[in-house]
Amino acid sequence: MAVSNNWAFASLALLFLLLVAAMATVRTGNVSSNVETEKVQSSKNSTMAARSEEVEPLNEHAVPDPEAVAAEVESIIDMNIRNVTERRKLGFFTCGTGNPIDDCWRCDPNWQKNRKRLADCGIGFGRNAIGGRDGRFYVVTDPNDDDPVNPKPGTLRHAVIQDEPLWIVFKRDMVIRLKQELIMNSFKTIDGRGVNVHIANGACITIQYVTNVIIHGLHIHDCKPTGNAMVRSSPSHFGWRTMADGDAISIFGSSHIWVDHNSLSNCADGLVDAVMGSTAITISNNHMTHHNEVMLLGHSDSYTRDKQMQVTIAYNHFGEGLIQRMPRCRHGYFHVVNNDYTHWEMYAIGGSANPTINSQGNRYAAPTNPFAKETCY
User: Fold this and answer.
1) 193 shares a domain with 290
2) The one catalytic residue among 157, 232, 305, 325
């Protein structure tokens, strides 16, 4: 009887140990899940120190000699203009405009069959952004955004969260009203050429902790603050998002980004904002109108890791109804080249915290207001 009691006691003890081990395993899994959830949070959900640790690896994409990249852009522009001019002098027909980005792909009569050639047409710091060049085409057929956690196949949200490289195109004209931020995954191109696609009257695009994204040919306007909701960022993960500011395109801790040929206007915060260690960015050929704080490049005067931010701003039209920040620069190196400034109400280009702003070949048409004629602030 004593032996039987001992065996029973030993069995109970073993069962207790197994239960403790199981609870520890579950607890460890929950901690891992929580860490992953916190990583996809917006900047308001984590400390500055934690965000700095996440951003640090992306700064390796900054080039050691930004002046060389700026000189390369100058050379490309000069050579392209010279070639177009000489051909016209000789009486040859040319579709060239002198804009090296456009001339790279627009002169191909079969560009719709060779869409991915666009990935070879970038200039400046974002020239190596390949987007979804090495992936398959994904055709967006459905403009709806009914469920940001479980997006339907055929929607833009379902396309951008995939882990694989994708070149995303649209079957027809559409207006997409996003319920929550459109959180991009790496190696994606959104290509709106050939159709009329609006992202409007809701949330807009967030490029956060990713790399190699191209945004081309979209109309993005009337973006609203959204958040305090669950949003999917990949096929295997969704997480809680606090309130987003309402930028048209928000670039946060990301690299190799190219924003080209978009129409941007009238959003709650910025039209294109790049912060928190983002680098290797080109913003080109965009038409921006009817907005206050147009473009912020650099998180704050105290956030010194933005010293490695490098951005090319080229061939943009800063148009009607703009007030300031075209762009507003902090810390990094910014090549502002061949842009057309036809309207502003406070100032065009601003800077603080010792940025290098290399401004070349821009055209400024100052406002008639004698107190608002500053090109630089």
Assistant:
1) yes
2) 325
